[in-house]
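C-alpha cells for chain A. Residues wanted.
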C-alpha cells in the first residue's frame, strides 16, 4: 500500500476516529433489506474499537438534497450495525455537525462507537464546503476512509476532511485498493478484461483505457453488437448504436496498435422478443436473421472465452455477456463466470470484478464468493477502470 497509511500505521487508543463508511444500503419500510455494506464496514469499526479508539461513523443515505428528510435518516442502521459488531451498542448522534454531534462524540469512552446522522442533510457536504469540512474535522483527531465506493466524489467527508486530519485507509478501502492494484497497476500477465453492457457510448473511456493496458479485451452484451455492425455484420433488430461504428473501429485500431487482442462473439443466441423463455436459436454472427435480436453470446463464444481465460493470469470483469436477468439468455455469462471461478479456485487466475450489473450477474451465476475480489462500488470502480484519479483516494496520498 505505497503512498498512504492504513490502520497499521495509527495509534488510535483514546483518540476520536472519524470513519467514513458507505452505509447507503437498501431499505424498505424503515428496515434494512441487505446488510452487505454494513457487514463489510464492520471489520474496520471493530478493529478501531478493540484498539481503544472512540469511533465516530460518518455516512450518507439517499439523495435528500441538503434537507432533513425523515425517511432518509440513518437511525435504522443502529440495530444492524450493532449486530454486525457482535452485539456491541452503537450510540446515536442526531446530526453530523453542531451540538447534537458534539454531545454524542463527547459522551464516548475508549472503545465506544457512535453513528452520526446523514451527511447529506447538509448541502455543504456535496459542495465540499471548507467551513463544513472544518466542522466535521473538529469532531475527531484522526480520519479513516473506508468508503471506496464514494471515493470518486470530492465531497467534504470523502476529500475535504482528509486534508485537515491525519488520514488513513480503512480495511475495506485497503482491500479494494490492493485488489485493484493487482488487477491493473501491477498485474501478473497476460491480463484479460471482460466488458459487457448495453452501450459503447457509456463505456468509451473505459474501453479506450483498457486497450492500452490489457492483453485480451473481451466485449459482450449490447456493446458487442455495435462492434459487429462496425465490422460489416448484419445484427438484425439487436440493440446497436450504429452512430458509434466509427468509434468502435477506432477502438479496434487502437487495440491492434497496442498488441491487445479483441474478442467478440462468434455465435449468438437470437430471439424475436425480449422475454423469459422466448423461443430462440443459436446462429453464427454472420447469419443473424433480419427479424431477430441478439440477446446473448452463443455457446461457441462462451467456450472460446473460457479457453482464452485459461491462458491468462489476471481478469478484470465489468458487465454481463447477455441479458442475464432472463433465462435462457444468461447462459454465456453463467458459463464464463463459472469457468473464471474454477480457474480462481485452482490458483491459476486472479479475478477482480465490479460495477452495477456485474455483482448481480456473478451472484446469479453462483460465483460471487469464488472470485478473488468483487467490488460493490459502482461509479468509483468504473472511474478507476477508466484510469481516472479518484479524489477520495488521492486525498489519502497527500
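Reply:
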Amino acid at each position: 500500500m505505497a503512498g498512504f497509511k492504513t490502520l497499521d500505521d495509527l495509534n488510535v487508543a483514546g483518540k476520536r476516529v472519524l470513519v467514513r463508511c458507505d452505509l447507503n444500503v437498501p431499505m424498505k419500510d424503515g428496515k434494512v433489506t441487505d446488510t452487505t455494506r454494513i457487514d463489510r464496514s464492520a471489520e474496520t469499526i471493530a478493529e478501531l474499537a478493540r484498539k481503544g479508539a472512540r469511533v465516530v461513523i460518518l455516512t450518507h443515505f439517499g439523495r435528500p438534497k441538503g434537507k432533513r428528510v425523515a425517511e432518509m435518516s440513518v437511525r435504522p442502521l443502529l440495530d444492524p450495525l450493532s449486530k454486525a459488531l457482535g452485539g456491541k451498542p452503537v450510540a446515536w448522534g442526531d446530526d453530523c455537525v453542531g451540538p447534537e454531534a458534539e454531545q454524542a462524540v463527547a459522551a464516548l469512552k475508549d472503545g465506544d462507537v457512535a453513528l452520526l446522522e446523514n451527511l447529506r442533510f447538509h448541502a455543504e457536504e456535496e459542495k465540499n464546503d471548507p467551513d463544513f469540512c472544518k466542522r466535521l474535522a473538529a469532531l475527531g483527531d484522526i480520519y479513516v476512509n473506508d468508503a471506496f465506493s464514494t471515493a470518486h466524489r470530492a465531497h467534504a467527508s470523502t476529500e475535504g476532511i482528509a486534508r485537515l486530519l491525519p488520514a488513513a485507509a480503512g480495511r475495506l478501502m485497503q482491500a479494494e485498493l490492493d485488489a485493484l492494484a493487482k488487477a491493473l497497476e501491477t498485474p501478473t500477465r497476460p491480463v484479460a478484461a471482460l466488458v459487457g453492457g448495453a452501450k459503447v457510448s457509456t463505456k468509451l473511456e473505459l474501453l479506450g483505457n483498457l486497450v492500452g493496458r490489457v492483453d485480451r479485451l473481451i466485449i459482450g452484451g449490447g456493446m458487442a453488437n455495435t462492434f459487429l455492425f462496425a465490422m460489416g455484420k448484419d445484427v438484425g433488430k439487436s440493440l446497436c448504436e450504429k452512430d458509434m461504428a466509427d468509434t468502435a473501429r477506432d477502438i479496434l485500431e487502437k487495440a491492434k496498435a497496442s498488441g491487445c487482442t479483441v474478442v467478440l462473439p462468434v455465435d449468438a443466441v437470437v430471439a424475436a422478443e425480449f422475454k423469459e423463455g422466448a423461443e430462440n436459436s443459436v446462429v453464427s454472427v454472420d447469419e443473424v436473421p433480419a427479424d431477430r435480436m441478439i440477446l446473448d453470446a452463443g455457446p461457441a463464444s462462451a467456450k472460446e472465452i473460457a479457453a482464452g481465460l485459461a491462458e491468462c493470469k489476471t481478469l478484470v470483469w465489468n458487465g454481463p455477456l447477455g441479458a442475464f436477468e432472463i433465462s435462457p439468455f444468461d447462459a454465456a455469462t453463467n458459463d464464463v463466470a463459472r469457468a473464471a471461478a474454477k480457474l480462481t479456485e485452482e490458483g491459476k487466475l486472479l479475478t477482480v470484478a465490479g460495477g452495477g450489473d456485474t455483482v448481480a450477474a456473478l451472484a446469479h451465476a453462483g460465483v460471487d464468493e469464488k472470485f478473488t475480489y468483487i467490488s460493490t462500488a459502482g461509479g468509483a470502480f468504473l472511474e478507476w477502470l477508466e484510469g481516472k484519479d479518484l479524489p477520495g483516494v488521492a486525498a489519502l496520498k497527500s
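The longest strand covers residues 16-20. The mean pLDDT is 94.
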